[in-house]
Amino acid sequence: MTTYTPYLGRPHVVGVKSGVTNEAGGCDVMAYDAYLDGKTVQVVVVVLGQRPNVAGRSFLAVAGHAALVLASAIAKHLGVWHVAEVDHPVGAIGWPSRDVPVVATSPVAIVTLDGVPATTHVAVQPWGENGIALHRVVARLEVTSGAFRVASDLVTAAVLSRPSLWQRLR
Fold first, then answer.
1. Which of 3, 107, 151, 160 could hold 132 in an S-S bridge, CB 3.0 to 4.6 Å?
2. How far is CA 124 from CA 103, 112, 120, 154, in A?
3. Which pLDDT score, from 0 to 100, does residue 168 have?
4. Three-state SS for 30?
5. Which among 88, 85, 94 has a CA at the least distance from the CA of 138?
6. Is the separation of the CB atoms in 153 and 105 below 8 Å?
7. What is the rounded CA–CA span in Å between residue 58 and residue 63?
8. Cα(26)–Cα(19) distance, rounded to whole angstroms?
9. What are the sequence ranges of the domains in the chain?
10. Tens-place pLDDT, residues 46-71
């Protein structure tokens, strides 16, 4: 009896384990590498209770096939949401008469699955009224989609000086 997925070695299939008992039927845990934007996202699926409905097919072959169909279907529904790039403005901070761009310190891109909502959260840090230095962290951006989470500090892209008396009076 084999103890690995019967489709191991086929494109994208990298493991993991199969098994069969009379009670459980054919079972397979499959790791499947999907490629998105040049990066690997590993999809892991589990199928249980598979039974052959064609003479001559083994429990493991049926379980392996079901796992492959499931994994490849999931891979087709994956995407990447590019939220922010390094040094590209995502907002601004300042006063009515003067503001400076706010940029991400690391790329923010997250794997998405059709039908699973992705959320963003920005935690702003207090910065006072005396101006802000270049590259000062003013917030943290967090993006979540299912089990995936990505975060980046948001910093000023320029010095923000305190407004003059004239600017404050306007």
1. 160
2. 13, 25, 13, 9
3. 63
4. strand
5. 94
6. yes
7. 9
8. 6
9. 13-76, 81-169
10. 999 999 988 888 999 999 999 999 99
Kindly report the number of other CB atoms within 10 A of residue 97's CB atom. 11
The phi, psi pair for 169, rounded to 5°, reads -80, -25
- For the chain, the average pLDDT equals 90
Q: What is the rounded radius of gyration, in angstroms, for the C-alpha atoms of the chain?
A: 25
Task: Kindly report the CATH number that applies to the domain delimited by 81-169.
Answer: 2.60.410
Polymer length of the chain: 170
pLDDT confidence band for 167 (50 / 70 / 90): low
Note the pTM of the prediction, 2 decimals: 0.75
**pLDDT reported for residue 2:** 53
Amino acid in position 140: R
Q: How far apart are CA 47 and CA 65, in angstroms?
A: 10
Report the 10 Å Cβ neighbour count for 20: 19
What is the C-alpha separation between 62 and 88, in angstroms, rounded?
49
Given a contact cutoff of 8 angstroms between Cβ atoms, the answer to whether 91 and 160 are in contact is no
